[in-house]
From TrEMBL:
GO cellular component: cytoplasm
Species per Swiss-Prot/TrEMBL record: bacterium (Candidatus Ratteibacteria) CG15_BIG_FIL_POST_REV_8_21_14_020_41_12
Residues that, per the record, bind NADP(+): 68-71
Pathway info: Amino-acid biosynthesis; L-proline biosynthesis; L-proline from L-glutamate 5-semialdehyde: step 1/1
Family classification: Belongs to the pyrroline-5-carboxylate reductase family.
Kinase keyword on record: no
Pfam families to which the protein is assigned, alphabetical: F420_oxidored, P5CR_dimer
Gene3D superfamilies documented for this protein: NAD(P)-binding Rossmann-like Domain, ProC C-terminal domain-like
Keyword NADP belongs to the record: yes
Predominant cellular place of this UniProt entry's protein: cytoplasm
Role noted for this protein: Catalyzes the reduction of 1-pyrroline-5-carboxylate (PCA) to L-proline.
Taxonomic lineage of the native organism: Bacteria, Candidatus Ratteibacteria
Localization of this protein: Cytoplasm
Name under which the protein is recorded: Pyrroline-5-carboxylate reductase
Pyrroline-5-carboxylate reductase dimerisation domain ranges (all copies): 169-273
Amino acid sequence: MKVSIVGGGNLGSALIQGLLQAKGWRATDVLVCDISGRRISFLQRKFKIKTTSKLKEALNFSFILVLAVKPKDMEELLSKLHPHLSPPPLRGRIEEGGKLFIAVAAGIKTDFLEKKLGKVPVIRVMPNICVAVGEGVCAYSLGRYTCPSDEKKFLSLFGGLGETIKMKESFLDLITAVSGSGPAYIFRMIEILAELLEKDGLNKKMALQIVSQTVFGSGKMVKELKESPESLRAKVTSPGGTTEAALKVLEKDHLKEIFSRAIKAARKRAKELGK
C-alpha cells in the first residue's frame, strides 16, 4: 500500500515518522506534497521519501490521500483537488478508480469535505503528534460515502500509529481539545517540573529523564493495571505526606477549573475553525 500526504508541517511530518517506524512501510511507499520547496527538501533529506509540489503527482501516486494542511488552507486545497477527480459514477469507490481522502485538520467536518469534493469517500481523523513514535490517539469518523473497504484501508494506515477509536463526529471537536492538543499540555507540565529540578541544581538532561519517565510510567500504570486514576493517586498520597501537601496546593489553586477552562477554549476554537 502507498499513501500521499498533502501538507508537510508538524503533523504531516509526525505521520511520516510514525509510518516509517511501523511494520510493513518503506520510504518508497510514502509521498509528501507541499507548496514549500524548502520544506519538501528537508523532508526528503530526513526521511528519504518521495516528494513533490504538484497535487497531480500526489493523486497519481496513491489511492489514499491524507490531507494534513492547516484548517485555514483546507478549502483552497479542496478546490484545487476537485477538478482532478473522476466524474460519477466512478467517483466514490476506490475499487472503481476513486480516491480515499483522510482529513486531519481540526474542525473540518466530513460534510464540508463532501460538499467540496463530491460523492467521494472521506474520513475525518484527529490524531495527535504522538503518532511519531507509534503511540498516538487517532479518533475518527466516517463520511457518508465510505464503504467497509475504505475503513479497512484507513485502519491499515493508522493502525500502526497508535490507538484508533471510531466515534460519532459530534465528539471530534472535544477529542481535538483533549487528545489532539493534549500532548502540549503534558509537554508544558514536563517543562515546568524539569525547570524546577534544574533550578535546584540538577542538569537539564537528568531533569528531563526523571520527569519524562515519571509521566510515561504513570500513563502506563493507568493503561495496564486497569485501575482508576483516583485509586492510583490514592496509593501515592499518604495522609500527612509530601504528595498530599502538593495536591492540596493544586486543589486550592483550582487545577480542575483551570483545565476545564483550557479545554473549553480549545473546543471553542475547533468549532470556529470548522466554520
